[in-house]
Specification:
With 212 residues, the chain is mainly alpha-helical. The chain is 80% helix and 0% strand. It is built from 7 helices and no strands. Residues 37-165 form the Tripartite ATP-independent periplasmic transporters DctQ component domain.
Length: 212
Amino acid sequence: MEKILESKAFSLVKKSGKLIEWFEVGVLSFGMFALASLLIVNVIARTFFKSIYFVPEISEFLVIAITFAGVSYAVRKARHIRMGAIFDAMNPKIQKVMIIIICAVSAFVMFLMALYAYQYVEVIMNTNQRTPALRLPYWIFLVMVPIGFFSAGLQYIRTIIKNIKEPDVWLSPEQQGEYEVEELQNLADKNKELADELLFNEEHAIEGQDKE
């Protein structure tokens, strides 16, 4: 029975992680595209006609959304700034204990910030503040702040679970080692594929010359 409950809980955590990832990627992709498009259009409009009055407000909203969706995404992919000199010098057992403690403290801070951000958004809602240009409720522009902090907290919890379940040390729920090492390995693999392709083409060229 305990194994079934544990399996269901793990499956629920995994599914929620996927949903959050889709949400983050969607917000980041759409936000970056929309922000770039708006700024380009506004520059053209300002040069030949006049500035579009609502672009600064929409841009502000998009920057907030990208920033706080990016907080959670950075935790998921272990792309946040970390001071790893002392941590990397430790043996794996101590590293695992340290990463669990670090993630627990970070999760607490993220959930606390999410609570404060939610309370702030609630105050903005109750005071009925609106944006100057579009006259939209200002809380809409800030709703991504508590969501981003809460999602980041969930990623730290997932990292703790990952390190408890797995024998290796995981920096995040999806990232085990440093990105630099993986990037170098990927670059080496790509170079090997390119070298194999060039060698294959050269062999075919030599065969063609021999036939002629």
